[in-house]
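Budget justification aside, the reviewers requested a transparent look at the raw inputs and outputs of the sequence design task funded under Objective 1. We therefore reproduce one unedited record. The lines immediately below are the C-alpha cells for a 203-residue chain.
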C-alpha cells in the first residue's frame, strides 16, 4: 500500500486493519498537535462515508493508495475566517425561517430545525475561539463600532442562554422574537466583522 502525507510518501507504512485504525495511527505517530486532518483520499477518491462506508468497515486489503492532507492551526484559522461570512449568512437565513415556523406552524417541526440552528451557532462559537487561540488574537483589543470582539462573543453566549431559557419555558413567541430580532442581527454583525478579524490575523 502507498501512503502519502501532504503529498510526500510516508516511509514505513501505517499499522491498522482498517481505515479508522490507520488514520488514528497516523495522527498518533506522524502529526504534531498543531495540525488538523483536512482531506483523506482512498484509491484516488475523496473519502466519503456515504459512498465508501464507515472508516472502521473499510478494510486495509481494499486500500491500495491512501492520501492524507493536513493544515496547521494557523492555516485552519485563516481558512475559517475567510469562509465564515458565507456560513453566517446561511445560518442567519435558517434562523429567520425557524422564527417564522414557530409563528405559523407546528412547534414540533420548528423545534427540530431550531436544534440544528443552535448546534450550528455553537459550532461557530467553538471554532471562533479555537481560531482566536491558534492565531493569538486579542479579542479585547480588536474593536468595531466601539465594541470589542470579546464583548460581541459574550453577547452571543448570553443570547444562547436566552434561547435555552425560552425553550425550557416553552415560550415559542419569545423564542421566535429572540431568534428573529436578536440573533439574526448579531449574526449579520459577525459576518461584517469577520474580514476585520482576518485582516488583524494577517497583519
Amino acid at each position: 500500500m502507498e501512503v502519502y502525507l501532504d503529498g510526500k510518501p510516508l516511509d514505513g507504512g501505517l499499522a491498522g486493519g482498517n481505515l479508522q485504525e490507520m488514520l488514528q495511527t497516523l495522527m498518533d505517530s506522524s502529526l504534531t498537535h498543531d495540525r488538523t486532518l483536512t482531506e483523506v483520499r482512498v484509491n484516488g477518491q475523496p473519502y466519503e462515508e456515504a459512498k465508501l462506508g464507515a472508516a472502521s468497515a473499510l478494510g486495509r486489503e481494499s486500500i491500495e493508495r491512501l492520501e492524507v492532507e493536513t493544515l496547521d492551526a494557523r492555516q485552519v484559522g485563516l481558512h475559517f475566517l475567510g469562509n465564515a461570512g458565507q456560513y453566517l449568512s446561511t445560518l442567519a437565513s435558517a434562523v429567520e425561517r425557524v422564527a417564522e415556523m414557530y409563528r405559523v406552524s407546528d412547534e414540533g417541526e420548528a423545534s427540530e430545525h431550531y436544534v440544528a440552528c443552535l448546534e450550528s451557532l455553537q459550532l461557530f462559537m467553538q471554532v471562533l475561539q479555537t481560531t482566536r487561540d491558534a492565531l493569538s488574537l486579542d479579542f479585547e483589543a480588536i474593536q468595531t463600532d466601539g465594541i470589542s470582539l470579546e464583548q460581541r462573543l459574550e453577547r452571543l453566549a448570553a443570547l444562547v442562554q436566552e434561547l435555552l431559557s425560552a425553550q425550557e419555558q416553552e415560550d415559542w413567541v419569545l423564542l421566535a422574537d429572540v431568534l428573529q430580532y436578536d440573533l439574526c442581527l448579531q449574526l449579520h454583525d459577525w459576518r461584517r466583522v469577520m474580514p476585520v478579524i482576518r485582516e488583524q490575523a494577517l497583519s
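The two ends are 43 Å apart (CA to CA). Residues 2-63 form one domain. Computational costs for records of this kind are itemized in the attached budget.
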